[in-house]
Amino acid sequence: MQKLKRFGEAGASGDRQAIRGALALYLDFINLFLFLLR
To answer: How many CB atoms lie within 10 A of CB 11?
Structure first.
């Protein structure tokens, strides 16, 4: 969540920033899912 907050504070600097934020969130969910499977 802190990453998303930083992206929001940086302002809307284009689609690239949004894609990077979405990818980071997606990877965080994958890591959480793998952690729960163990």
So the answer is: 8
Please tell me whether the overall predicted TM-score, pTM, comes out greater than 0.85 for this model. no
User: What is the C-alpha to C-alpha distance for residues 25 and 23, in angstroms, rounded to an integer?
Assistant: 5
Give the whole-angstrom CA distance, residue 32 versus residue 38: 10
Backbone angles phi, psi at 11, to 5 degrees: 95, 170
Q: Which two tokens stand for residue 22?
A: 């979405």
* pLDDT tens column, 1-38: 666 666 666 655 677 778 888 899 999 999 999 999 99
